[in-house]
Amino acid sequence: MQELKNAIRERGKVLSNDVLKVDTFLNHQIDTELMALVGKEFAARFKNDGITKVLTIESSGIAPSFMAATELQAPLIFARKKKSLTLTDNLLVSTVYSFTKQESNDISVSKDFIQGGDRVLIIDDFLANGQAAFGLIEIVEQAGASVAGIGIVIEKSFQEGRKNLDDAGYRVESLARLHDLNEGKITFVDELVS
Ligand code: G4P
Ligand code: NA
Ligand code: NA
């Protein structure tokens, strides 16, 4: 998606060989116009897949998924993050390990909001190691619902997540794919010269 790639190049900041800072439009300040375009692009890619629910995770997944859900005329649900959950009776819960933070967190969704028969589009801002995506998949599958696919705003293709989701047979639609961030330079997968 060209507008997104322009924003990443012009307004993103490479912090290291594996971290891209996008606080100017996605993770702190939100460029609402760009996020509306992002959401519309997800919706266009999944418009024929019978999506009944859009599922994301707080907090940075909410903005890019809002317009997708609007266009698909489906409710938007965000999984909640909490250190450890005790009252889990009415909750779908999975555990997500963050390599970045080196800690595990439970994520949860009320059973009231995803049910058997739902066809769910999962959306997140970043795909790194895929822990969040697999946690959301587990929640959908616990509910007896099915995963239509995973929409990602920025995929770091040099980390494991994309490959692991492909290997597990899930459809992944990433709007920008980073080949690498080496030497402070942003290289997209589709711009590689071979
Ligand atoms: P994974 O789910 O793919 O395995 O990723 P990981 O544990 O490494 O990610 C932990 C947090 O860091 C997530 O946000 C994720 O979106 C974010 N993240 C991963 N790589 C990058 C990156 O290169 N740049 C930026 N800006 N963020 C990255 P979170 O802690 O869940 O926070 P929130 O922003 O959704 O509240
Ligand atoms: Na996120
Ligand atoms: Na984030």
TrEMBL record:
One of its GO terms (cellular component) is cytoplasm. Xanthine binds at L20, N27, K156. GO terms for molecular function: xanthine phosphoribosyltransferase activity. Residues 35-164 form the Phosphoribosyltransferase domain. The gene is xpt. Its main location: cytoplasm. 5-phospho-alpha-D-ribose 1-diphosphate binds at A128, N129, G130, Q131, A132. It catalyses: XMP + diphosphate = xanthine + 5-phospho-alpha-D-ribose 1-diphosphate. Converts the preformed base xanthine, a product of nucleic acid breakdown, to xanthosine 5'-monophosphate (XMP), so it can be reused for RNA or DNA synthesis. It is found in: Cytoplasm. One of its GO terms (biological process) is purine ribonucleoside salvage. This is Xanthine phosphoribosyltransferase. HAMAP family: XPRTase. Transmembrane segments: none annotated. Belongs to the purine/pyrimidine phosphoribosyltransferase family. Xpt subfamily. It comes from Alkalihalophilus pseudofirmus (strain ATCC BAA-2126 / JCM 17055 / OF4). Homodimer. NCBIfam families: PRK09219.1, XPRTase.
